[in-house]
Every structure is written in C-alpha cells, then in structure tokens.
Amino acid sequence: MTLAAPPRRLVLASNNPGKLAELQAMLAPLAVELVTQGSLGIPEAAEPHRTFVENALAKARHAAAASGLPALADDAGLCVAAFGGRPGVDTAHYCTQFGYPKSDANNVRALLEAMQGVQDRRAAMVSTLVALRDPDDPEPLIATGRVEGLITEAPVGEGGFGFDPVMYIPALGGTFAELPPEVKNTHSHRGRAAAAMLALLRQHWWPAP
C-alpha cells in the first residue's frame, strides 16, 4: 500500500483574490495548496522598501513567521517609462496620491488622467515572487517576470484586475483584460514569474522522484 504524500501547503502573503486564483492555477502542477494569510488571521506586513524584491522578502518573512508554514509572496507593479519607472512599488495605492479612495477603478482613472497628453505610452508590468521555507531561510527562491506593453487611452476589456484594462500587449493584440485567463496566465508578468518559480521549487524543494 502506497501512502499519500502530505499536502504541500504554502501561506500566500496576500489577501488579493486575483493573485490567489492566478498563482493557485499556475502552481497546480506541483499540487500546492495556497492558503491566504488572512484566512489564518495574519495581518498584512509593512512594505517600506522601494524595490519589488525587498518588499516581497519582507512579506514572505512576515507570513512564514506568523504561520509556521513555508511562504510565498508576490510584489508586483506597473512601471511607466515616462514616469521614470513609477508607480512601481506604489502601484496598489497609486490613486491615493491624487486624493482618490484606493480601488482598481480609481487607479486606472488616476493613471489615465496623469498620462493625458503624454506621447510615450510604454510601460512594463513586473512581478517578483519570493518563496521561503521559514522566516530565517538563508536561501530564498526568487523569480521575476516582466512583460512590456503600452498604456491605452481608455480601459478595454472586462477581465483581470488592477491595470489589466489599460495594459495593451502588442504581441498578443489586446489588453490583459481582453485575454482569456489561460492566455493571460501564460504570458503575463505573474505568469512568467510563476513559471520560473515552479522550476525553482521543483529543483530545490520538491524534486521529482
């Protein structure tokens, strides 16, 4: 009789349902169960740093310490060429600097208003994933994904979340919000980071027998 392997559980250092759904699907080949930190009563970590990787590390350490589980954290954002790479790590709260309440719709509204008359519409979506076995893990797994596109003049599409309706990807012929989930998950910044993380997890944590 073969005993079933214990479940591979990771605490996700986020309460974002969009991130949870995307990452759970992307890590499905490893049969990993992602558990949000909020479901375990863990508050969000402070994110005082100015780079994606530093904030992802801080969030993963916080979640691992509070849960006793290995942790996975994602820090992602929009980097607009005309704004010197900003909003970057401030992406989630971008609209608040313009006096709007925090929401995806207000972030999109604030960005389009800020880009009125701006000819250079180039932008990149960047995702950095960090996985830790415990909060003192000296060898975190770090994976980064990046996808380049153009900021549209108005929102297009009903899918996705965040800035997906205004992030047009020329190579795919549409915004992220227009793409079927399986196409977006394959080609998005988070999809590319997750694919790289999947390979790292297989190599370092859960090698195939």
From TrEMBL:
The gene is rdgB. Substrate binds at S14, N15, N16, P17, G18, K19, A76, F161, G162, F163, D164, K184, H189, R190. Mg(2+) binds at D75. This is dITP/XTP pyrophosphatase. Belongs to the HAM1 NTPase family. Pyrophosphatase that catalyzes the hydrolysis of nucleoside triphosphates to their monophosphate derivatives, with a high preference for the non-canonical purine nucleotides XTP (xanthosine triphosphate), dITP (deoxyinosine triphosphate) and ITP. Seems to function as a house-cleaning enzyme that removes non-canonical purine nucleotides from the nucleotide pool, thus preventing their incorporation into DNA/RNA and avoiding chromosomal lesions. It catalyses: dITP + H2O = dIMP + diphosphate + H(+); XTP + H2O = XMP + diphosphate + H(+); ITP + H2O = IMP + diphosphate + H(+). It is an enzyme of class 3 (hydrolase). GO terms for cellular component: cytosol. Homodimer. Its EC number is 3.6.1.66. HAMAP family: Non_canon_purine_NTPase.
